[in-house]
Specification:
This protein has about 350 residues and is mostly helical. The chain folds into three domains: about 1-100, no CATH class; about 105-180, no CATH class; about 185-300, no CATH class. Helix content is about 50%, strand content about 10%. The chain is built from 14 helices and six strands. The protein has helices spanning about 1-25, 45-55, 60-70, 90-100, 115-125, 130-145, 170-180, 185-195, 200-210, 220-230, 240-250, 260-265, 285-295, 320-335; strands spanning about 35-40, 80-85, 105-110, 160-165, 305, 315. It has a two-stranded antiparallel sheet. The protein has a two-stranded antiparallel ribbon with strand order 3-4. Strands 5-6 form a two-stranded antiparallel ribbon. Helix 1 crosses helix 3 (about 60-70), helix 3 crosses helix 4 and helix 5 crosses helix 6 (about 130-145). The longest helix is centred in the first third of the chain and has 25 residues, at about 1-25. About 30% of the residues are buried.
């Protein structure tokens, strides 16, 4: 009698097995994502936590679970950021996660003024927080006997590709490698001919960068400041005054217009107050600004002022009288446009 009762349930059991077999087979070919999905898996994440993040994006949760368990994924979880195309099947999703096939992230460094800003920019798309990155930068500086300001010379503005899980050490090592690659034979030869140290070149380039972001104008600006250095004239660069003021006040405000309170702010970076170059860069200069210092335009300019006729560019002068006219014209333009 018992054997007969088991037989009674046999069709049901076969149906369940067939359904599971169908789910398993379709896992090989059919898309199981509702849309393109980005999945972040933290270190030490459990399978349940992965499922909590992934489930809302799955068309068939059971099909994915079946494939994940078949492929032993719950014991092979790898941290990372994974971009999952909506056409991926359960098998393809599991294989990607199981193998740790991470997608790259972009880390963009702009003309950052301090190592705090560098760490903040890097941490936007990396798992590590800005404090961990900042500490690694400081460790890098210590190994090179440089301070928090001078170490900026080793970081170049650009967009770099990393993995989300890359460590602070890997980020800093990559920046060091990029800096080494930047100083090729041609630039190293130009550096030797410049009569400046590498830190001095980067420092002057940072001033050129903040004065003008126009690559065609940067060699003119570089030539002007080199003229002032050779003649022993204070650089009197507004960006250095702004940097000194902001450094003293914690970078808490945005300065649209430079006033006497900025020019008179006591700082070793303020070239209205000091002779020669500041002790370190005031930002991360672009390659174009560095190349402008290494290959400056030979000119007789001593003065420059923002142009009222051509915003974004400058008016250059050889005499103080011509410079005074340019300044007056620019201040008039500022007042007419309500820039304070």
């Amino acid at each position: 009698m018992k054997r007969i009762s088991y037989i009674k349930y046999l069709p049901f059991a076969l149906t369940v097995l067939m359904l599971n077999a169908c789910k398993y087979i379709t896992s090989f070919s059919q898309s199981n994502l509702k849309e393109d999905t980005t999945l972040y898996i933290l270190p030490d994440a459990t399978f349940q936590q992965v499922m909590d993040s992934l489930s809302p994006h799955l068309k068939d949760k059971e099909a994915f679970l079946l494939m994940a368990k078949t492929k032993n994924y719950p014991s092979l979880i790898k941290k990372g950021m994974y971009k999952l195309d909506k056409d991926l099947s359960s098998l393809e999703i599991v294989n990607k996660l199981r193998s740790g096939d991470q997608s790259e992230v972009k880390v963009t460094l702009k003309n950052e003024p301090t190592i705090y800003h560098i760490a903040g920019a890097a941490s936007k798309n990396l798992l590590s927080d800005s404090l961990a990155i900042l500490n690694e930068i400081r460790s890098f500086a210590k190994n090179k006997n440089l301070d928090d300001e001078q170490i900026k010379a080793y970081f170049l503005p650009n967009t770099y590709h990393f993995f989300w899980t890359d460590s602070p050490q890997k980020f800093v090592e990559r920046m060091g490698a990029e800096e080494k690659k930047f100083w090729n034979q041609e630039r190293t030869k130009a550096l030797e001919n410049s009569g400046l140290t590498k830190l001095e070149v980067i420092t002057l380039a940072s001033i050129v960068q903040m004065e003008s972001n126009k690559p065609k104008e940067q060699p003119i600006v570089a030539g002007l400041y080199l003229n002032r250095l050779k003649k022993g004239i204070k650089l009197q660069s507004d960006p250095t005054a702004k940097y000194g003021y902001l450094k003293n006040t914690g970078f808490k405000e945005k300065i649209e217009r430079v006033y006497y309170k900025h020019l008179n702010s006591p700082s070793e970076f303020n070239t209205y107050q000091i002779q020669g170059l500041p002790p370190a860069p005031i930002c991360l200069p672009n390659a174009t600004a560095i190349d402008a210092v290494l290959n400056p335009e030979k000119n007789d300019y001593i003065f420059m002022c923002a142009s009222a006729k051509n915003p974004g560019y400058h008016e250059f002068a050889k005499t103080e009288s011509q410079h005074a006219k340019n300044v007056e014209q620019y201040h008039r333009w500022l007042n007419e446009n309500g820039i304070k």
